[in-house]
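Deadline looming. Please check this record:
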Amino acid sequence: MQVPLIQLQCGVNSYEWGKVGKESAAAKYATATDANQFTIENEKPYAELWMGTHPSLPSKDVETRRSLLDLIQDNKALMSTEVSKKYSEKLPFLFKVLSIRKALSIQAHPNKKLAEELHRKDPKNYPDDNHKPEMTIAVTPFDGLCGFRPLKEIAHFLATVPSLRKLIGEDAAKGFEEAVSGRETSGSAEDTQRNKKALRAVFSALMTKDKSAVLAAAKELVASAEKEGENFAGGGGPANGGKELADLVIRLNGQFEGDIGLFVLFYLNYVKLEVGEAMFLKADDIHAYLSGDIIECMASSDNVVRAGFTPKFQDIPTLTSMLTYSYAPISDQKMKPVDYPYVTLNRTAYSSSSSAILYDPPIEEFSVVKTELNGEGAKATFEAIEGPSVVICTAGSGSISVGPKTQQVKAGHVFFVGATAECILESDSESFTTFKAFCELSGKENANGAS
């Protein structure tokens, strides 16, 4: 019987927003596997390394060149019978490395019911029928727009950014202010629904403006940002200073001149993640990634509803109707990782402050463990789980072992580990860093790392 340890050949996408040439972590990782026969072009952007069975860019076994999908469909034990049955013999998650040079589109991913409907009506723009909750872990410093700001912050910007108020119209601005006044932080179900209705109305008022009006308002906005500096937007809100917001407007206008996204940023939380910090985005959560290298894990889907910062197809009516309009500070979306309890570190690993931490979102499809083994000989032994795993090394070197099979690992190498297999990682360098995405429907991996 085949040992359930398979080195994967993974493809990289070239999207315009990706980092260029060897600046891209996604591209550098893709070159690590000799079977890829992939050469980095110095002037070409490389955006995403995909690890999984999604048909848009499926991973393959380095040795046999067979797709991972073929292998797990031929041998259901690789995923476990339970996982194979629930997810139609496909890997439940899609694991990625993103290298972001400029803003991705303002977007949301549909829930399962809407995904099925969109795919049926428009398969060209919505290529599958699955939902796409996703988790982001920073590999380098990252920034992005994620989820609607607290309502008081939005009201503050409506009052202190004249070009925004003028663009959406006085009636829309006043309607929002009056609807939420005194109820911004109310916890009652009635007030929350009323607030969401008001937020939807004031956001839709922006998103439905014609392009010429947005372009004219954007010129005023950028001029104010350049002139006012730290006094821009009333000195900013509690989460972001005026200078920080002014710099952000100027930077994004340099990438997408006159885009509606320059105004959307006043509705959304502007977040910065340090290395190792993470956030979870539910289906129907609005967001736009702006810069950095990240590990991303999601349900296996490629559905995106876009509405700004992109030349691609935009579906504003769907976006404005699908959003939950939940509003909260960004701290509510940041995850709180915990120590992973089902791993044993050897003495060398303990004495060098090595670690294995779990990022566990409130969904079944995936969780991720980040392991840092410090020093030669540091070892982590992972207990077997009832589901599949995919492991990528992002720094250093070492080995991975399953049963009698041991393979050398360096940055960029990716491995599939089958269900019920104990997995051992061992460092032969100063610092050996890996991320392991896995799915187990019941049992040990039930800690909830989302706040």
About this structure: DSSP finds 14 helices and 25 strands in the chain.
